[in-house]
Amino acid sequence: MQGASDTADFLARRQREQRRYHARKPKTIGNVLAQLITARGYGRIQADANFAGAWQTAVGPALAKYTLPGRLRRGVLEITVTNSMTVQELTFQKQQVLAKLQSQLPDARIRDLRFRIGSIS
Questions:
Q1: Distance CA 86, CA 64 (A)
Q2: Residues 60-76: what's their mean pLDDT?
């Protein structure tokens, strides 16, 4: 009977070791904060504020009041514009504005601008 007891002890020890091995490891505070910021959308709010400030500087106050920078997707910054005349003016100045944005926000990696007509509030 000693063999059965040894086998049972061995199996119990092995199960404890497996549970310990597969147990969840504690998360670092950096990962927890990153998940919280992403879940609450705080990072998006900060990015929008950065784009708005850089956009105002790049196009100037005369054109900025008729435009609203939107989302950055795959390097393309979408700009909502109130009318087609402003879209045409921005199209003429597109390369200069793009260069200014790229110098102000190098981490954003903006490679193009897309204008669309819509209402801004």
A1: 10
A2: 89
DSSP lists the bridge partners of residue 89 as none
CB burial of residue 55 (10 Å; 0-12, 13-18, 19+): buried
The alpha carbon torsion through 53, 56, 57, 59 (nearest 10 deg) reads 150
The total number of structural domains in the chain stands at: 2
Residue 75 predicted with pLDDT over 80: yes
What range defines the domain where residue 23 resides? 1-40
Residue 60 sits in the same domain as residue 36: no
Residue-wise pLDDT for 9-44, tens only, equals 888 888 877 776 655 677 788 877 777 766 766 656
- Is the whole model's pTM more than 0.70, yes or no? no
